[in-house]
From TrEMBL:
InterPro entries: Cystine-knot_cytokine, TGF-b_C, TGF-b_propeptide, TGF-beta-rel, TGFb_CS. Residues 22-34 have a biased composition (Low complexity). GO terms for molecular function: cytokine activity; growth factor activity. Its main location: secreted. This is Nervous growth and differentiation factor. SMART domains: TGFB. Belongs to the TGF-beta family. It comes from Hirudo medicinalis (Medicinal leech).
Length: 360
């Protein structure tokens, strides 16, 4: 009798366990049907890639990817430093900003012809753009101008670089009068014009650009305000602006990466899977760096709690119906890219890397 009871218990337990295992996938299947986004892992991966493309454009306030065909990368002195910084930050995902849209950090704006006098040598920067308006504020603006190499070597040669604020075509406020020697030709010179840029942003009608004068002994201009050939085009003057968002707050947190799975894992429940995004495969040559980054994605079932008999079982199950495996927290990525006006922008885009996944 004792033996028969033991056998009965074992058979009952095994049968009960079998029933629970068989009912589990059915429950998950029903749960997946109630959540259209919960599909196969391949579908989730494809959906995540498409979502990344749309999110980047939306957060950068773009309607379509910029067309940079024929655009030559300018020879900006600090560009390589920024590239190295983005590479380092891409390897170590940073904490996400509370702001949903991208917070611009640095803009490199290349000069253009003056709309008031296109044939003049005035250096002009269009500052009428959204990223320069409230709540963003320019806190640092450095103007860079390339000084051509003196053709006649003369160690004793010296002159002055004069920078005027262009009110009219040939007159304006003298901003800088810097002495220059022969050794300083063939190099970049820079000037802090933060207060001028801030005033131009507040009063766009006063923006008439800058006039720069520096001549050699024969009266030829050494200030590269208008490129004479393709080689000089890579040394066009530019404006380096650092921008912060007023009252912007960032929160740092210790990230719990939760359950991580390999791509071909047999795991059925909610888990974070690797996903390497390659912007070149998108055909996005407007992103200078990074060319690739680790985005990750969430996939898996969100099974209902145990079906053990309880007066509150139906209440608990109703609570968990329709739950999906989705990102619990995300991090931002750094990016150096061309915007729609062909400016080179360095900024952070929030919510682009999945830190961990959970059922919601």
């Amino acid at each position: 009798m004792y033996i028969r009871v033991i056998i009965f218990v074992i058979i009952f337990t095994a049968t009960s366990a079998t029933w629970r295992r068989s009912s589990g996938p059915s429950t998950s299947s029903n749960n997946s049907q109630s959540c259209p986004a919960c599909g196969s892992r391949t579908l989730k991966r494809s959906h995540r890639l498409e979502s990344i493309k749309n999110e980047i454009l939306r957060k950068l306030r773009m309607t379509s990817p910029p067309n940079v065909t024929g655009i030559r990368m300018p020879n900006l002195p600090h560009l390589q430093m920024i590239i190295n910084r983005v590479q380092m930050e891409t390897q170590h995902a940073a904490d996400q900003s509370e702001n949903e849209l991208a917070t611009t950090m640095t803009i490199f704006r290349v000069s253009q012809s003056s709309p008031y006098d296109p044939e003049s040598s005035t250096v002009y920067f269009d500052l009428n753009s959204n990223e320069l308006r409230y709540p963003n504020q320019v806190v640092n603006a450095i103007f860079y101008i390339y000084i051509r190499k003196l053709s006649d070597p003369n160690p004793d040669w010296q002159s002055y670089v004069l920078v005027y604020r262009g009110y009219t075509q040939h007159s304006g406020q003298l901003l800088f009068r810097n002495k220059i020697t022969y050794e300083q030709t063939g190099q970049w010179m820079f000037f802090n014009i933060t207060s001028i840029v801030q005033d131009w942003i507040r009063h766009n009608e006063t923006n008439r650009g800058l006039e720069i004068f520096c001549i050699d002994n024969s009266g030829q201009s050494l200030a590269l305000t208008r490129p004479l050939n393709e080689e000089e085009a890579s040394n066009k003057s530019y404006l380096h602006m650092d921008i912060v968002e007023i009252n912007s707050r960032r929160r740092k947190r210790n990230v719990d990466y939760g359950k991580n799975c390999e791509e071909y894992s047999s795991e059925l429940d909610c888990c974070r899977y690797p996903l390497e995004v390659n912007f070149q495969e998108f055909g996005w040559d407007w992103i200078i760096i990074p060319k690739t980054y680790s985005a990750y994605y969430c996939s898996g079932d969100c099974p209902l709690p145990s079906r053990d008999p309880s007066p509150y079982t139906h209440v608990t199950q109703d609570k968990y119906k329709g739950m999906c495996c989705a990102p619990k927290s995300t991090s931002s990525i750094s990016m150096l890219y061309y915007d729609e006006r062909m400016n080179i922008v360095y900024g952070r885009i929030p919510g682009m890397t999945v830190n961990n996944c959970s059922c919601f």
